[in-house]
UniProtKB/TrEMBL annotation:
<dbReference type="InterPro" id="IPR028082">
    <property type="entry name" value="Peripla_BP_I"/>
</dbReference>
<protein>
    <recommendedName>
        <fullName>Substrate-binding domain-containing protein</fullName>
    </recommendedName>
</protein>
<keyword id="KW-0732">Signal</keyword>
<feature type="signal peptide">
    <location>
        <begin position="1"/>
        <end position="27"/>
    </location>
</feature>
Length: 237
C-alpha cells in the first residue's frame, strides 16, 4: 500500500499529511485525493485544518491515499504542484489558492475535478469557504494572539473563520463525490455548488463556545503566562 507523502516545504510540527493507512486499502490503483495548500505555515491566514481533514477522511474513505502539497505562498510552485498531482493520478483536488485569479487558470486546465477551499475560484466544481473573506486582523499575527489580546483587554474582539468546520465539510464533499454519493444542500454561489460559512466576531464572552469548543484553540493556549490571572477572573479556568 502506498503511503501519502508531503510534497513541498516541510510542515514541521503542524502535521499536514493525511495518512492512507486505512483498513481495506488496496495496493492497486488507490483513490488519490490531492490537497494543494496555499501556505500551510502562514500566520497571516488560517490554513486548512489538517487534523480535521484527516480525521474525516479516515472515518469515511476506505482506501484513500491523500497527498498534501504546500506552495509556501508561491503561485508558480502551486502551478507545478497541480501538474504533479494530476500526473500522479489524483482523482480529486482540494485547492486552497495562493492567488484566486491565477487559480482560475489552474482550474480550467485541470484534468480532474477541483474543490476550491477558502476562496472561490471561478470554474471550480465545488466550493467550501466564505462568500466574502474578512479583512485580516491588524496588529497581531494569529488568531491565538488576537484571542489572548481579547483576554488581556488590549482589544475588544477579533474575526474568526471556522476552519475546523470548513475542513470537515470539504472532506465530506470530496469523499461523497468520489463514492458517487454527492453531498446535498449546497448553495449556488456564482454558478458553483457551494457550502458557505460565516466569519464570527469573537469577544471574551464567546471564547469558550466558539474557539475552544470547536477545537480551534485550547484553554491551555489561551490562559497561560500574562493572561492566566484574567482568565481566572473571567471564569475561563
Amino acid at each position: 500500500m502506498r503511503r501519502g507523502r508531503l510534497v513541498g516545504r516541510s510542515l514541521g510540527g503542524a502535521v499536514l499529511l493525511v495518512a492512507a493507512a486505512l483498513s481495506g486499502c488496496s495496493a492497486v490503483d488507490p483513490t488519490v485525493v490531492a490537497v494543494l495548500a496555499a501556505d500551510a505555515e502562514s500566520q497571516l491566514q488560517q490554513p486548512l485544518d489538517a487534523d480535521g481533514l484527516r480525521e474525516r477522511l479516515e472515518q469515511r474513505c476506505d482506501g484513500c491515499q491523500v497527498e498534501v502539497f504546500d506552495a509556501a505562498g508561491d503561485q508558480q510552485t502551486q502551478d507545478d504542484q497541480l501538474d504533479q498531482a494530476v500526473g500522479a493520478s489524483a482523482d480529486i483536488v482540494v485547492l486552497d489558492p495562493v492567488e484566486p485569479e491565477a487559480a482560475e487558470e489552474l482550474v480550467a486546465r485541470s484534468e480532474v475535478p477541483v474543490l476550491a477551499y477558502g476562496t472561490l475560484v471561478p470554474g471550480a466544481d465545488w466550493f467550501v469557504g466564505v462568500a466574502t473573506a474578512p479583512s485580516p486582523t491588524t496588529g497581531v499575527d494569529t488568531d491565538l494572539e488576537a484571542a489572548r489580546e481579547v483576554i488581556s483587554g488590549d482589544r475588544d474582539s477579533f474575526t474568526h473563520l471556522p476552519a475546523t468546520e470548513m475542513s470537515d465539510q470539504a472532506a465530506d464533499v470530496a469523499v461523497g463525490e468520489l463514492a458517487g454519493q454527492p453531498v446535498g444542500e449546497s448553495t449556488d454561489h456564482e454558478g458553483v455548488p457551494s457550502w458557505l460559512f460565516e466569519p464570527v466576531e469573537v469577544t471574551v464572552n464567546d471564547l469558550t463556545s466558539v474557539v475552544v469548543a470547536t477545537g480551534a484553540m485550547s484553554l491551555d493556549d489561551l490562559c497561560s503566562g500574562q493572561t492566566l490571572e484574567r482568565c481566572t477572573r473571567f471564569g475561563l479556568v
